[in-house]
Design goal:
Distance between the termini: 15 Å
Radius of gyration: 18 Å
Number of strands: 0
Low-confidence stretches: 192-198
Shape: elongated
Order of helices and strands: HHHHHHHHHH
Structural class: mainly alpha
Strand content: under 5%
Mean pLDDT: 91
Number of helices: 10
Largest sheet: none
Oligomer: single chain
Length: 200
């Protein structure tokens, strides 16, 4: 199950104030967008006062950075665990992405969305996104056998994964995206991820 997409309201209410604010912002920023989510909405849904909010986050920009850092940690924890759960080799990439694409709360990549929304006004968004994508690429590289082409193959596969993330965001259903992703992963991996007879 994809755990990082949202947090149950009962779980949020039981957290300390700073964590409630961060978890609420995480859910609202990802679901509704960073620009369209106002601080007042975060404050109201987190169940805190403005004084409490600004004690922990002196501005919306500080909260945005904290949200992306938190999202990075949660996403990478899920991603690396899912890859291992599906076998820890290159074929694991497609069923791992299928878990995410099929999740009801899927809204694409929080980092790609963040860059398109707010990066010109907040350069830290691009810095965090760059680091996130490097870590994702390194996790993909770990699925490949050692060799001189390992880094270039991982870079190509990461590019394909990012493309599939965007495609899955606006297409009506993810299955066609997953079929295309499977073919591309197999092609780039030199046949290492030849699809199985069973469906992903």
């Amino acid at each position: 199950m994809v755990q990082f997409l949202g947090t149950a309201k009962a779980d949020i209410r039981a957290k300390p104030a700073r964590e409630r604010i961060l978890l609420t912002a995480h859910d609202l920023f990802y679901r509704d967008g960073i620009r369209s989510t106002g601080i007042d909405s975060v404050i109201e849904q987190a169940g805190v006062t403005k004084v409490t909010f600004y004690r922990h986050f002196r501005s919306k920009n500080v909260l945005i950075v904290a949200y992306l850092e938190y999202r990075h940690e949660r996403w990478m924890t899920w991603f690396t665990a899912a890859l291992q759960r599906h076998g820890g080799t290159l074929p694991a990439l497609v069923p791992t992405m299928a878990e995410w694409f099929r999740a009801p709360g899927y809204r694409g990549c929080a980092f790609i969305n963040g860059v398109s929304e707010i990066a010109p006004a907040l350069p830290q968004v691009s810095e965090i996104t760059r680091r996130h994508k490097i870590d994702m690429q390194n996790a993909i590289a770990a699925l490949l056998p050692p060799g001189r082409r390992r880094e270039s193959l991982a870079r190509a596969l990461a590019l394909v994964v990012d493309g599939s993330i965007v495609q899955a965001q606006f297409r009506s259903e993810p299955e066609a995206v997953l079929r295309d992703l499977r073919q591309l992963v197999s092609f780039i991996g030199g046949g290492r991820s030849q699809p199985q007879s069973s469906k992903v």
